[in-house]
UniProtKB/TrEMBL annotation:
Signal sequence region: 1-28
Keywords tagged on the record: Signal
Protein name: TolC family protein
Membership in a protein family: Belongs to the outer membrane factor (OMF) (TC 1.B.17) family.
PANTHER family membership: BLR4935 PROTEIN, OUTER MEMBRANE CATION EFFLUX PROTEIN
Record Pfam families: OEP (PF02321)
């Protein structure tokens, strides 16, 4: 019996590799492979969120351009002294006037309108930029989630293969009378649990790939990844002395609120219009020019409510700016610390995987030689699978930390600085 159980360790691991990899290799040619994250990032402008951001920015620029338009003139036609009595009977003494009236946007009304539209366009442009980077962050998150789910599935398949292999070894020991029947039952129960975990991991993997296909706007659902993002270490970026994107957005909103306040203040001023026309005297056949000015009198409506509302909006925008300035530095420091800690966590997890692999190798040798029990082998196997899962979680945490930092800095995760 020791000859049966004393298989070379190399052959054991070869068997595990065949069990884990045979099915994926057989299906590799039929699986749809997703482009790399960098390839998908290059197509960011084609994704709905980026298209929406560009459209919003374009609309704001168009409104700013429209704000420069001069008000249209109005054309009027008027006939006087007709269909009356005495000499004004009929149309004999009619006076016909054709005039053109042009509103005059004086008192700074036009400049205030243009300034407000420009400020709104700037704020909208910055918000659109933020939408693009958030879309890039969602893409990176979906890609890393899909890769992590795929790795967890592979680990579950490996755990099942190791559990089945250990169960076979325990069955031989039970047949030889070296282990109790209970140990064989426990081994089969562990195998069944590992098989259920594999099915659960497959469902999670398929859902993650479906979400990636939807977010990346891929033509066909993907089933595997061609390049790794979890193994990509974030590039170091020089500290940008300019304000973070969120602070710049808040500042632009303050400026826009100030411009809207100016518009409301100017709206309370009189509206002035100039007119010029020609009058025709039908009785004598003479012509004469007419000129005129009209001005509104702000007697009842002085737009006081609109001005107060604009003041309140400006104070609210200033409060948001103050809060954003206070939070920006703390958020940046926290994101950098989280990223640094996650990178250290990856290194520690990789070291733990190496130690767990060596422990399982030694436990397997000791079990085959009859020096260790099934419980000790099971414990080292569980530690190995746990260590590998911890390595996946550490890499996923590193990706999330990079996404958070990139969002604060205003750039794409694992991409170039702005």
């Amino acid at each position: 019996m020791p000859m049966l159980l004393g298989r070379p360790l190399r052959a054991v691991w070869l068997g595990v590799a065949i069990l884990v990899c045979a099915s994926p290799l057989a299906m590799a040619q039929t699986r749809e492979v997703a482009p790399s994250y960098q390839s998908l990032l290059a197509r960011l402008e084609q994704m709905p969120a980026a298209i929406e951001a560009a459209a919003l920015s374009e609309a704001a620029d168009a409104r700013a351009q429209q704000a420069r338009a001069i008000a249209n003139p109005s054309l009027s036609w008027e006939t006087e002294n007709i269909q009356g009595s005495g000499p004004y009977r009929g149309f004999g003494n009619a006076e016909t006037t054709v005039s053109v009236t042009q509103p005059l946007e004086l008192f700074g009304q036009r400049s205030a309108r243009i300034g407000a539209a420009r400020a709104d366009a700037l704020a909208t442009g910055l918000r659109s930029e933020q939408m693009r980077w958030r879309a890039a962050g969602r893409l990176a998150q979906a890609y890393s989630d899909a890769e992590a789910a795929s790795r967890r599935y592979d680990l579950a398949a490996e755990a099942l293969a190791l559990s089945e292999q250990d169960a076979r070894a325990v069955a031989l020991l039970v047949e030889a009378g070296r282990e109790a029947t209970l140990r064989g039952i426990q081994a089969r129960s562990e195998t069944d649990a590992a098989r259920a975990q594999l099915e659960e991991a497959r469902a999670v993997r398929d859902a993650a790939f479906a979400r990636l296909s939807a977010i990346a706007m891929l033509d066909a659902p993907v089933e595997t990844l061609g390049a790794s993002l979890l193994d990509t270490a974030p590039a170091s970026h020089a500290l940008d002395a300019s304000d973070p994107l969120a602070v710049r957005i808040a500042q632009a909103e303050v400026d826009a609120a100030g411009q809207r306040l100016t518009v409301e203040q100017r709206r309370a001023r009189p509206d002035l219009s100039a007119s010029m026309g020609m009058r025709r005297f039908r009785e004598t056949g003479d012509d004469a020019f007419t000129i005129g000015l009209s001005v509104s009198v702000p007697l009842f409506d002085r737009n006081r409510g609109g001005v107060r509302a604009a003041y309140a909006d400006q104070r609210a925008a200033e409060a948001r700016l103050t809060a954003q300035q206070q939070e920006a530095r703390a958020d940046r420091l926290a994101a950098e610390a989280t990223l640094s800690a996650s990178m250290a966590r990856v290194r520690a997890a990789d070291s733990g995987v190496g130690a767990a692999e060596e422990a399982y190798r030694m436990a397997r040798v000791g079990f085959d030689a009859g020096r260790l029990s099934q419980l000790e082998l099971r414990s080292t196997r569980a530690s190995l699978i746990s260590a590998r899962n911890a390595a996946v979680e550490a890499r996923l945490a590193r990706v999330r930390a990079e996404i958070d930092l990139a969002g604060l800095e205003g750039r794409a995760p694992f991409g170039e600085s702005r």
